[in-house]
Amino acid sequence: MASNQTTQLSEFTLLGLTDNAKSELILFVFFLVVYVVTVLGNSLMVLTITLSSALRSPMYYFLRNLSIVDMCYTTSTVPKLLQDFLSEVKRISFYGCVAQLYFFISFGGIECVLLAAMAGDRYMAICMPLRYTEVMSWKMCTILATVCWIVGLLNSLAHTVFTFRLPFCKSRALNHFFCDIPPLLALSCADTTINEVVVYTAGGSVIVGSFILTILSYIFIVKSILKIKTVTGRQKAFSTCASHLVVVILYYGTIVFTYIRPTSTYSLDQDRVVPVLYGIITPMLNPIIYSLRNKEVHKALTSHFQKT
Q: For this UniProt entry, which segments traverse the membrane (predicted)?
């Protein structure tokens, strides 16, 4: 019965961020600028890390992966959002909604696990410097990056399958600017208990698990830094992970607020703005944070521009 009702649904209507025409025009310009900056900034990071011989360490290997993920993450929602700002009726096909949810959750999950892997890399570099080269070999980096992608893709597959097995018979109007889990569950007239279990187990394991591993890594990192006797030594050690720590705080703060809490506390009118922070703004800020706070990246960028 559920599958029959679901397959008959051909499209959803997205309510978007606002229904004010003047506001939509302003938001169109804003998100267009953000998207262009995101794509250019992350593309520049990928190009710089690829071409610079000075950026051959595991940290920059993961950073290049992060830049690729951020571009894909933003692309899963922003182009459609820009199109909707210029449309009177904001429609998305059923299968378009399936694809958007899958890719958005996929890249979000990949980023979570990737940030944990980057924290582990910083832990090895600062807490076990003598074993760093041995442990963080290129083979190990490739394995870790592959695991990040596999976990993110499989986690999203679980969410997508369980979400779209539901019958959506309350309404076709999705109270969001893209297809996300909470507003889709709100449209279902079936029991969503299983879906909530999937969110807390699969999604919670990826988000919270990655967050815990990241925090534990930084606890040990801070302890090691505090043992360094000289102020210069402590500053140098902390500078190697400061950029990553800022990105972690920005990303996890908003994503945990959105997903890891009871559905009874959801306020769809307010919560549809939150993904703008972790799914659109943070991917734009990541290359800026790394290029400004990381001296090696800054030097490589400067050298690249001087050559061109």
A: 25-49, 99-119, 140-158, 197-221, 242-260, 272-292
Element housing 275 (H / E):
helix 274-276
For the four alpha carbons of 159, 101, 62 and 234, in that order, the dihedral sign comes to negative
Map residue 167 onto helix, strand or coil.
coil
Tell me if 91 sits within 8 A of 14, measured CB to CB: yes
Q: Which of 16-25, 88-97, 109-118 has the lowest mean pLDDT?
A: 16-25
Nearest to 94 by CA among 158, 187, 226: 187
DSSP-derived secondary structure for 203-264: IHHHHHHHHHHHHHHHHHHHHHHHH--SHHHHHHHHHHHHHHHHHHHHHHHHHHHHHSS-GG
- Please tell me whether residue 159 adopts helix, strand or coil conformation: helix
pLDDT, tens digit (0-9, with 9 covering 90-100), for 257-276: 655 555 555 555 566 777 88
Query: Residue 157: CB partners within 8 Å, gap ≥ 6?
Result: 102
**Can you state the percent helix, strand and coil of the chain, rounding each to 5?**
80, 5, 20
- For tokens 């009871």, the residue is 262
